[in-house]
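Record 1 of the preview.
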Amino acid sequence: MSTDGSGEQPLTRAQLRALRAADESAQPADDAAEPADDSAQPAVEPRAEPVAEAADVAPAPEKRPSPDEPASAVPAPVRAATASEALTFEEAPTPLEAPAPARTPAAPRDRRFTLTLLSVLGILTLVAGVLAVVSLVQGPRLSDVQVDPAQAIEASGSRLILTANQSLDGIDADQVTVEPAVPFTVDAGGRSVGIRFTVPLRDDTTYRVSVADVTATGGGKAADLETSFRTPASNIMLLQRSADGVDKIFLSDLSGEKAAVVFEHPRISDFRATTDVLVVAVEEEDGSRLLVMNRDGTGERELPLPGEGYVSSVQVSDRGGLVGYSYSDRELTETSGRASVLVTQSLSGAGEPRVVQIGDKDVNIAEWRFVPDSSSLLFIDFDGSLSVEDPTGDAGAQAMGKAASILGVNRGTYTALVERVDGSLVVLDLTGGGEEPLPASDPDYGDAVGIEAFPGGTLRHVIQRDELGMPTGQAVVKVDEKGAATVIAEVSGEDSILQTCASPGGQYVAVAIAPDLANNDYDDLLLPLPTTMHTRLIDLVGDRELPTLSGFDISWCRTAPLP
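->
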């Protein structure tokens, strides 16, 4: 129905499109910018309200502009579109249609991204192929080496880990060579080859390691993995006691020229050092104190004791972070108090001190040692029974027969040198209890009063005698694994050897000597010793001249000297 009385019906949307198409085909291109003749085509009048499009509902009538009204005065939404505006008009949403999403030129960009991605993938595939070919041609190569040279000269069990650039076939110990020669075990898997040195290494030495004929898991050419590292020079600690002053522990190089005091106390009875900490037993009026600190003397802390009493024979374990000692209560009677019980506890201070027992009874210890490369204890009680126990396990003490003395414990073999009650010297297997006689030396320098085991042999402290059997002096004899013996240190009848200790790797020997023993006064500590003590250093594997240092109980020693 018409609302302006003209009698004309409003045009439909299809009619409008047909008119625009006819106008575009009839109008010259250079006239596209001129306004269209309003009388030639009907204008669209804006609707008052949006009307839902329906087939049976006629569009609302539109108001037509007067022929005399200029086209520019007609608002854009109701002015007929020109030929150049047709695309915009066509795509502009009407009230009857939902707006169409804006179009962006995405196709060219997507095409470029696809081409770039394919190019990158192609390059990566090419590189992977080249690397695969190179690996097949060259064989495995080293990509990383891990080793702690400083720790390796202090304790057995240090590891060298070689990492290859690809997974490896199985590695046999026969493929591994270490120079200078040192015993080792091999543990390999994946890309790594682990080499565990079962004894400490020598100081200030270059080690060369080679793994021969290594192949990748997928096959290919065999290659050798080779590396080298150098261990640092040794540092040692020495104890100096003073009859009328302060006892001191020094940290020094082997020359003694760079000695520095790291701890001092009026009465130091004993000490031990590990790669990380220093453990010191001191005496005071109410008994002993056990102190733990860093190797440079910093970070001092005190470990609790089982009671008020005295500590002696301090030792530290290679494994488990334990300290052990012989402990006696200060107040002792025939019916009360503990005498010479064996105690272990954590170096960290965690937990309470633990007294070693057999059958729920505290054991009185005559002599004891930590077993190297473990946390196990080897001890002889007052009845002469020899036992071994791991304080970190639940198996308890294992009987090893009767013994008069523990002469030494070998590194890396879990064997001990023991004097049986009949005077025989044996090498005892601590895992199964088997034993064999200790080989005699050649030449035979007589029975040893003390034996120190080191990697490659033993050091035997012997008494030298004349033809009538009278003592004329003392000596330290080096005996290798085949029994060949060489005297490495001697003292006259006036002097006395009180302690012999080998460096962890068996490279050096320290011999503690009390000169002029008859006129060398003893101190009054729990472990009384001559007030004047010297330590002679000896190079076992080279011709290096080493000095004699003032002091004793070098940090290589695992036990205190015997008075």
